[in-house]
Design brief:
Blueprint lengths: L1 E2 L4 E6 L2 E6 L1 H7 L2 E5 L6 E2 L4 E7 L3 E5 L4 E6 L2 H4 L3 H4 L8 E5 L11 H7 L3
Antiparallel strand pairs: 1-2, 2-3, 3-9, 4-6, 5-8, 6-7, 8-9
Length: 120
């Protein structure tokens, strides 16, 4: 997995990548009560807002860490937004992207580097 400074994670799976928020991010937000997911087919650029998480504390934008086309969203989050809190880096994933610029992954942090700048 790769990580961004804005607390998103990316799991590269060839031409596709799964995106979510880190455990640190969900912990800072508190209890997630609503998730606004992007539309399948939407083309996003790295750094562009792609989703919104609403918690009991605040709403937070989620930025796509990679460029490409949204090919799937986690429909389970519509019914169970709390999956982002319970399992942020597994069951609480947000969306999947067909990568258009695989090399963008090279600019992201590995887990060790991410944890060194965040108390997780």
């Amino acid at each position: 997995m790769k990580y961004t400074k804005t607390h998103e994670w990316v799991k590269n799976e060839g031409e596709m990548a799964t995106v979510g928020v880190t455990n640190y991010a969900q912990n800072q937000l508190g209890d997630i009560v609503y998730v606004e997911l992007p539309k399948v087919g939407k083309v996003v650029k790295a750094g562009e807002e792609a989703a919104v998480l609403e918690s009991t504390k605040a709403a937070a934008d989620v930025y796509s860490p990679v460029s490409g086309e949204i090919i799937e969203v986690n429909e389970e989050l519509i019914k169970q937004a709390e999956l982002v809190n319970v399992s942020p880096e597994q069951k609480g994933w947000l969306f999947k992207v067909r990568l258009s610029k695989v090399e963008e992954l090279d600019d992201m942090m590995n887990e060790t580097d991410y944890k060194s700048i965040n108390s997780v």
